[in-house]
Automatic annotation (TrEMBL):
It comes from Ardenticatena maritima. The lineage of its organism: Bacteria, Bacillati, Chloroflexota, Ardenticatenia, Ardenticatenales. Keywords: Oxidoreductase. The keyword NADP does not apply. Pfam families: 2-Hacid_dh, 2-Hacid_dh_C. Residues 6-320 form the D-isomer specific 2-hydroxyacid dehydrogenase catalytic domain. This is Glyoxylate/hydroxypyruvate reductase B. Its EC number is 1.1.1.79, 1.1.1.81. GO terms for molecular function: glyoxylate reductase (NADPH) activity; hydroxypyruvate reductase [NAD(P)H] activity; NAD binding.
Length: 327
């Protein structure tokens, strides 16, 4: 008889789940869309372990009605969908998957920078609607990326990896955040500046900070007004950092040149949302880590965190390591 019960909120490759099948009674949500909240609560109620995704709301109420729950393991680096304080109060460790998606997400951030600057999607649409009749000397003009100034909001792992890519384009690199990171910045040739100065001097602003109460709608109407005319905004962090109404207004007014968004709030955006119709916006469906290699490694890390928590061991990657100090 299996020792533990586990609920997994999305289908994952069987070979990655094999270690769990050996030791637990595993319940895998079979649908393409996430489990509805009531179903999530029901299936978690009797679980010893929960392997969840960023699309799942793991709040205090859900945690309270799961008396057997020993570990929550999220297949993502961020965990703003989880009430970590409630989990900590119960002594439940929360696992996540940092580091592994750094390079893949930085690749996508720079892809969005290039696509927005060079109007890549406009060119595709131009062909699709049959408008391409000849080469035009001043048609579909974009902006150079090489030699421009890149402003990075949050010089963590992904922000630093994006800065390394910018070096290949000869970009000047500014960064901002709650504190300076002199060692990292020196290796990247990056300069620490205030948020206001970064907005004023950057041709491209790339967001890499976590979503917290302090960063929610950090990019609002005031922030967009401070940005350089024609600047490009790229967000591969969390959708809630950007006020979408304010972004749309800045684009429609012609103050911002373009935006590349891999994250939105909500996800997905409704198909009739004005940002979906804006020609100067490129929206991708949260695919920053979506490579075969990265997603498999994320799943493996999530399983390893889950197994460690079930066994009462310290999680390899834990968002609330203080729970182990109480034991």
């Amino acid at each position: 008889m299996s020792q533990w019960r586990v609920f997994i909120t999305r289908r994952l490759p069987d070979d990655i789940l094999a270690p769990l099948f050996e030791h637990a009674d595993v319940d895998v949500w079979p649908e393409r869309l996430p489990p509805p909240y009531d179903e999530l609560r029901r299936r978690t109620a009797a679980a010893d372990g929960l392997l969840c995704m960023l699309t799942d709301r793991i709040d205090a109420s859900l945690i309270a009605q799961a008396p057997r729950l020993r570990v929550i393991s999220q297949m993502a680096v961020g965990y703003d969908n989880i009430d970590v304080a409630a989990a900590t109060a119960r002594g439940i460790p929360v696992g996540h998957t940092p580091g592994v998606l750094t390079e893949s997400t930085a690749d996508l951030a720079f892809a969005l920078i290039l696509a927005a600057a060079r109007r890549l999607l406009d060119g595709v649409r131009f062909i699709e609607r049959g408008a391409w009749q000849t080469w035009e000397p001043f048609g579909l003009l974009g902006q150079d990326v090489h030699g421009k100034t890149l402003g990075i909001v949050g010089l963590g792992r992904i922000g630093a990896a994006t800065a390394r890519r910018a070096h290949g384009f000869g970009m000047r690199i500014l960064y901002t955040g709650p504190r300076e990171k002199p060692d990292v910045a020196a290796a990247l040739g990056a300069t620490y500046v205030s948020f206001e100065r970064l907005l004023a001097e950057s041709d491209v602003v790339s967001i890499h900070c976590p979503l917290t109460p302090a960063t929610r709608h950090l990019f609002n109407a005031d922030a967009f007004a401070r940005m350089k005319p024609g600047a490009i905004l790229v967000n591969t962090a969390r959708g809630g950092i950007v006020d979408h109404d304010a972004l749309l207004a800045a684009l429609r007014a012609g103050h911002l040149g373009a935006a590349g968004l891999d994250v939105t709030e909500p996800e997905p955006l409704p198909s009739d949302h004005p940002l979906m119709q804006c020609e100067r916006v490129i929206i991708t469906p949260h695919i920053g880590s979506a490579t075969v290699q990265t997603r498999r490694r994320m799943a493996q890390m999530a399983v390893a965190n889950l197994l460690a928590g079930l066994r009462g061991e310290r999680l390899p990657h834990c968002a609330n390591p203080e729970v182990f100090e109480k034991r």
